[in-house]
Structure formats: C-alpha cells, structure tokens
Amino acid sequence: MTGVDVLDTPVAELADAVDRARTGSAFLRAKLGDVPVRSAEDFAGLPFTTKHELRETPFLDYAALPAERIVRIHSSSGTTGRRTICAYSAKDLDDWAEMFARCYSFAGVTEADRVQLMVGYGMWTAGVGFQAGAERLGAMTVPSGPGNTDLQLELMREAGTTVFGATSSFALLIAELVEREGLRDELSLRVGVIGSERWGDATRRRIESGLGIETFDIYGMTELWGPGTGIECSLHDGMHVWSDHYHVEIVDPETLEPVPHGTPGEVVVTTLTKEATPLVRYRTRDLSFRYAEPCPCGSPYPRIGRIEGRSDDQVKVRGVIFLPAQVDTVLAEVEGAGSEFQAHVDRDESGRDSLTIRVEGGDRQGLAAELAERFQAQIGIRVDVDLVPMGTLPRNAGKTKRVFDHRDL
Q1: What is the residue extent of each domain of the chain?
Q2: Could you identify which of 10, 170, 246, 288 might form a hypothetical disulfide with 304, taking C-beta atoms 3.0 to 4.6 angstroms apart as the criterion?
Q3: For the residues of 93-108, what is the DSSP string, one character each?
C-alpha cells in the first residue's frame, strides 16, 4: 500500500503513538512487529486492527498499561455481536471529558445551560461520557437516563432543561410526545446532541420542528473512548474530528486502499493519546468520507461526512449494495413521508431476493407509488413499499434496528 491520508498528523506523532502502543501491549507488540515508523509509507504498511481482535483478546492482555493503572472499564452495546471491553486510565478519562466538553462548545452549549442526559448508563459509554463533558464545561447536569418519558418531561419542566443528549429514536419519541400533548411552550429546550446511531435529515427535521431546537450529530464509539470523537459545527456540513487525539484514514472497505477526499469509504482510526486501550489503524466499519477543504466556520479540525452506514451491516440485494442512508435521502425529499422506516430483505422459493421498505407516512394519494419510484432510482433495484401509520414503528431509548435480512445465507 502506498500513501496515507495524514489528516495533519505529523509522522513523528504517529510514530510515537505506535511505539507507545506496542511497548505497553503484548498483543500489539506481536501484531505490529518492531519495524520503526519513519514515513507515511511505513505507517501505511502497518496491519489493520479489527473489532474481532478486540472482542477475542482479553482486555488486560490487550491493554498497554498494567492493571494497577486501569481505573475503569466500559463495553460496547453489543448491537452487532459480542461486547467489546475497553480499559481506561485516569488520563484517558480526563482526555475524554475534555473532548466531550469541546463537543458541547461546538454545539453552542455553555456553563449557563442545563443538560438532560437521556442516554444509557452503566457499562455503556454514553451516559458517563455525556455527563463528564457537561460537568467539565460547568453546565448543570440532569442524569435522567433512558426511557420513562413522563419522568423526562417532568424533569425538563422542573429543571428548565435547555440541552439534551439522546439517540435519534428517543429524541423523535420525545418530539412526537411534546407535539401531541402541546407541551412545547412549557419547555426551555434549544439544543439536542444526538448520537449512538445513524440518522438522516428527515429525522433531524422532525425532531427540530417538534421541539423548536437545533440538533448536532456527535460521533464516537466505545473503542474511541466513547461518544465525543467529533461533532458538527453550527454549519451542519460534516463532523469535525479532534485530530489532536485521532488520526483518521478513509479506505476502500474491500481493497483497504486509501480513497480520495470526497469518496465514501471506511473510517480507520489510530488513537494518538489513548493510554490503556490504544488503537492502531482500527477498522471502525463506519462509512463516511473526508472533506478536502477546511470548514468555513474557521475551525482547524478536519471534517468527515455524517455516517452513511456500516461496511459490515450493508446488504447486497440482487447484486446491488443497499445502505439505510439511501432511504433517508428519499424520505427527506418526499412530502408526507415520515422519517422512520424498516428495510426487510427476503428470498422466495425460486431464490429471488426482494426488498420491502416499511415507511411511516400520511394518507396522501400516490405516496406509496412515489416512494417506490424514488427508492428504485436511488438504490438501483425495484423496491416494494409498505406504508404504515405515523407512530407505528418502534422508538427506542437505545439503538434502533432498521435492516432485517430474513434470507438463509
């Protein structure tokens, strides 16, 4: 492989990060070998790290610090399989809080705000990450946790909540409830920080219009400390990534070769400052692209596009790759269509595959036919549309499953 998308990371900094990782971690030392990193080509020659390796390696065997210096562990939600456990040093937690406070600042949150956290606590990284960042910023924190909509609304009114953190599914549920009960004038909300699952412009518009707020898409995952890796600025054109903590590459998920700026590919991350569970060329499986130009907002931090899907979740139907983001694109453009959907892939007895997209929508005549036509143009195959009433599909406090592959592959 030749060349690497450096994202303004000096080679010396990459070399230091790699050296620290393999010096401390027996697993990474065996995996990466002892060839020094003296150039971008040397770095690009290092092997990728995968989620499977993190899952299958006991976290203390992978860790680059002795157990005595590990102060906490977290695990992934396990949405796509076995949970991934990651370790944290005291410095890791301090860096994470600083990064998340930076995210809040990019979203216009200040110490005068009151931040309600409708996200999961416990082994999942969301709750403590959102909370540590808000407290570092100096804002009032309301750790309400997920679910229990009656409690959420009660706390919003009593605490005068101005900012909340949630998944897009739960934020949509709250927005629909506020609209239905006419509560908007009783609330002080102005900003929503939304993370943990991919969401599109149609969902954004429904949340923002229902609550009268501005939303910000935040990026992260347990392996990358947690949420807080990067966030949108007020221009909402891509997510700024904290390049003082992360080196990001975008590669073709099949060839693993780097792709040009603006070309979608898989996000690959090397952590520059993470002590306990450092990552070297970690394949996140998230699909995005790198912006070639600096953001007009003036921030020096580079941008990647909002996540389009995952390379290990995309499905192929009749030879065509299907991604949920393609549905979002259509729903955002069609009047009367809701933002929630499910995609069901089936195979009949003759071996022919079919794709049915179940969409919430109004009763506008011709809506299903228009959606079917738009989906076919966007995806490239014939799509069956199953219209269901608004509010029919599940809204979850956690991640929402949208693609169901019923084929016996």
Answers
A1: 11-88+238-286, 92-232, 315-405
A2: 288
A3: HHHHHHHHHHHHHHTT
Q: Which residues pair with 303 in a beta bridge?
A: 240
- Identical topology for domains 92-232 and 315-405: no
pLDDT at residue 17 in the model: 96
Point out the residues of the chain with pLDDT beneath 50: 1-4, 6
Task: Render the burial of 105-139: b for 16+ CB within 10 Å, e for the rest.
Answer: ebbebeeebbbbbbbbbebbbbbbbbbbbbebbeb
Q: Long-range pairs for 66-73 at CB < 8 Å and ≥24 separation?
A: 69/275, 69/276, 70/276, 73/123
Q: Residue 184 has what DSSP assignment? A: G
> Are 286 and 323 within 8 A, CB to CB?
no
Q: In this structure, what token pair is assigned to residue 336?
A: 């009367």
Closest CA to 127 of 138, 135, 136, 119: 119
Q: Give the distance, in angstroms, between the CA of residue 210 and the centroid of all CA atoms in the same chain.
A: 23
What DSSP state is assigned to residue 84? -
Q: Confirm if 100 and 245 have CB atoms less than 8 A apart.
A: no
- Domain 315-405 in CATH 3.40.190.10? The answer is no
| Global pTM value | 0.84
Residues 315/322, Cβ–Cβ less than 8 Å: yes
Write phi, then psi, for 292 (nearest 5 degrees): -80, -35
Residue from 402, 270, 399, 401 nearest 6 by CA: 270
| DSSP-derived pairing of the beta strands 114-117 and 140-142 | parallel
Phi then psi for residue 100, to 5 deg, are: -70, -35
> How far is residue 359's CA from residue 297's CA, in Å, rounded to a whole number?
36
Long-range pairs of 257-260 with CB within 8 A, sequence gap ≥ 24: 257/1, 258/1, 258/3, 258/4, 258/5, 258/44, 259/289
- Decide: 55 and 78 in contact? Cβ < 8 Å: no
Cα separation, 107 vs 105, in Å, equals 5
- As a whole number of angstroms, the distance between CA 316 and CA 381 comes to 11
**Superfamily for domain range 11-88+238-286:** ANL, N-terminal domain (3.40.50.12780)
pLDDT by residue (tens digit) across 358-400? 988 877 888 989 999 988 888 888 899 999 888 888 776 666 7
